Amino acid sequence: MRRVLAAVMTAPLAPVEMREFAEPELEPGAALLRTVYSEVCGTDVHLWHGRLSGVPYPIIPGHVSVGGLAKVRGELTGVDGARLAEGDLLVFYDVHRTCGRCYACTVARTPTRCPSRRVYGITDAASDGLFGGWSEAIYLEPGVVAARLPEGVTPEDYIGGGCGLVTAVHILERAALKLGDTVLVQGTGAVGLSAIALARISGASTIIAIGAPDDRLALARRMGADITLDLRTTSAEERLTDVLGHTRGRGVDVVLEAAGSAAAAEEGLELVRDGGTYVIAGHYTDVGPSTVSFHRHVNRKHLDIRGCWGSEAGHFLRALRVLERHAATIPFRDIGARVYALADVNQALADAEAMRLPKALVRP
Ligand SMILES: [Zn+2]
Ligand SMILES: [Zn+2]
To answer: How far is the CA of 41 from the centre of ligand 2 (A)?
Structure first.
């Protein structure tokens, strides 16, 4: 039996270890991918810090990946209806086992809150199999939503956008942006950078981004931001003055939060206009409470605050269409700033943790 090398996160804060696994037997409808790229994103840093609940360590991290279809048992059809064949470059939606029958799935229509839902690289244990991309091979269990990488989209384009792009598609859907809206994006990590690009192609007028460091702000401008404000060299008062100055004293129509700090949420409430929309998407882990005056910020402001949790298969497919149309002109690929060998994944994690790059890539 062939052996597959994978990087295993055994416990929070423990060094990631290389381990060998047996190549899995495929059940009917299952497939095996030879990993081309996976990513080391902010979620992986959270996983390594033990900040996500319900994670069955040891795990093989890497929730969004691209790979070549090495083996398939039976027939495999893409989410767009196309027949998939061995040798195809495939991408897949990392969430699986959403039940489609529970209260969340059917009545509330919030499948991202389905209790049966599992996520590759996050909530699947290494003992369950090759459910993560920090591995030479990935097991696609029957029912996983997959698609062929669209024509003209390179693996680098796809993995550069990666989970941040799919999340940003959901954020923009929640924002219900109108043509000509002014938009503020808080955070210039992988999610914020993609949200900037999507706001731009959705018809935003002025897009302001708040973030750091310099190289991310430069990339934010290339993704479509008109104005970037450096979190480290400006005060909240200066940013408020700046944002009001660009919006005739009103504040922006829409704020997209992809920063994940209590202070950012408080600041966003000040920067959004009366009757505006505020989408909270960066609080993926619990960073503690923010101080809100429900009178001033919500009731009197007539504010629409919306949460945004995870993504659905439709967001994954829409992300592919965005890449098909725009990857040649929007530099999604540059979000994946550096490629690491599987054996160097601890360095990739350290670099991601220190925010030395928006996203590290792993090439097993
Ligand atoms: Zn369900
Ligand atoms: Zn991710």
So the answer is: 5
Give CA–CA dist 17/34, Å, rounded. Answer: 20
In Å, how far from its chain's centre is CA 341? 22
CA separation for the pair 46, 260 (Å, rounded): 11
CA of 294 to the centre of ligand 2 (A): 33
Under 8 Å CB-to-CB from 65, ≥6 apart: which residues?
33, 35, 36, 37, 38, 39, 91, 92, 120, 133, 138, 159
Query: What residues have a C-beta under 5 A from ligand 1, the ion?
Result: 99, 102, 105, 114
Q: How far is the CA of 124 from the centre of ligand 1 (A)?
A: 17
Whether pTM > 0.90 for this model: the answer is yes
Report d(CA 325, CA 317) in Å as an integer: 13
Q: How many CA atoms lie within 13 A of 359 on its CB side?
A: 34
Q: Give the bridge partners for 18, in sequence order.
A: 7
- Decide: 87 and 110 in contact? Cβ < 8 Å: no
C-alpha separations of 50 from 10, 55, 72, 81, 93 in Å = 11, 8, 35, 38, 24
User: What is the token pair recorded at 206?
Assistant: 């002025």
Tokens 């796809």: give the residue.
158
Residue-level length of the chain: 364
Q: Which residues surround ligand 2, an ion (CB under 5 A)?
A: 41, 43, 163
Q: What is the mean pLDDT of each successive set of 10 residues along the chain, which is 364 residues long?
A: 92 96 96 97 94 94 97 94 95 97 97 96 96 98 96 97 97 98 97 98 98 96 98 98 98 98 97 98 94 96 97 97 98 95 96 91 96
Q: How far is the CA of 142 from the centre of ligand 2 (A)?
A: 22
Tokens of 198: 């999507």
43 CA from centroid of ligand 2 (Å): 5
Name the percent of the chain lying above pLDDT 90: 97
